[in-house]
């Protein structure tokens, strides 16, 4: 299994110069398998959308992944604080999240098609 990072989504969510620790945090919280499904009406049939509540003593984040249920591969989408307008309400009822998710899914699929991504192996 692997986590696939769209290079454009890395820049949007982690900034221009993400650190190795950023990627390790995203991997670590996925591997804990403590997540909640997000209902979404227009996902590919092979996929599920999940959110992870990543919380430490010093910060609280929300991470959103798209999972390929056939291969087990994971696609990174969001890394938000719980206090921003999207991270505080990662549901279909939040119009800001809905709009941004549609945008990010389009970016992800375009980057996959154009080999504009990087991969991190996971256990």
What does it look like?
- Strands 2-3-4-5-1-6 form a 6-stranded mixed β-sheet, with helices on both faces.
- It has helices at residues 7-14, 20-31, 95-113; strands at 2-6, 35-37, 47-55, 60-68, 74-81, 117-121.
- The protein has one domain.
- Strand 3 and strand 4 form a beta hairpin.
- It has 3 helices and 6 strands; from the N terminus they run E-H-H-E-E-E-E-H-E.
- By secondary structure, the protein is of the alpha+beta class.
- The mean pLDDT is 89.
What is the percent of helical residues?
A: 25-40%
The low-confidence parts are none
The order of strands across the largest sheet is: 2-3-4-5-1-6
Mean pLDDT: 89
**What does the radius of gyration come to?**
13 Å
- Quote the beta fraction: 25-35%
In angstroms, what separates the terminal alpha carbons?
7 Å
Shape: globular
Note the total helix count: 3
Topology as a string of helices (H) and strands (E): EHHEEEEHE
Query: What is the β-strand count?
Result: 6
Number of domains: 1
Main sheet characteristics: 6 strands, mixed
Global structural class: alpha+beta
List the helices and strands and how they pair.
Blueprint (H helix, E strand, L loop, with lengths): L1 E5 H8 L5 H12 L3 E3 L9 E9 L4 E9 L5 E8 L13 H19 L3 E5 L2
Observed structural traits:
123 residues; single chain; 32% helix; alpha+beta; 32% strand
């Amino acid at each position: 299994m692997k986590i696939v990072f769209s290079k454009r989504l890395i820049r949007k969510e982690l900034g221009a110069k993400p650190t190795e620790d950023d990627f390790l945090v995203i991997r670590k919280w996925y591997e804990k398998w403590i997540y909640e499904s997000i209902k979404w009406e227009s996902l590919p049939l092979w996929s599920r959308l999940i959110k992870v509540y990543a919380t430490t003593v010093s910060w609280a984040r929300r991470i959103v992944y798209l999972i390929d249920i056939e291969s087990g591969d994971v696609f990174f989408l969001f890394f938000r604080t719980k206090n921003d307008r999207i991270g505080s309400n990662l549901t279909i009822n939040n119009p800001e999240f809905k709009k941004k998710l549609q945008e990010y899914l389009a970016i992800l699929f375009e980057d996959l098609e154009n080999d504009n991504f990087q991969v991190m192996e996971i256990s």
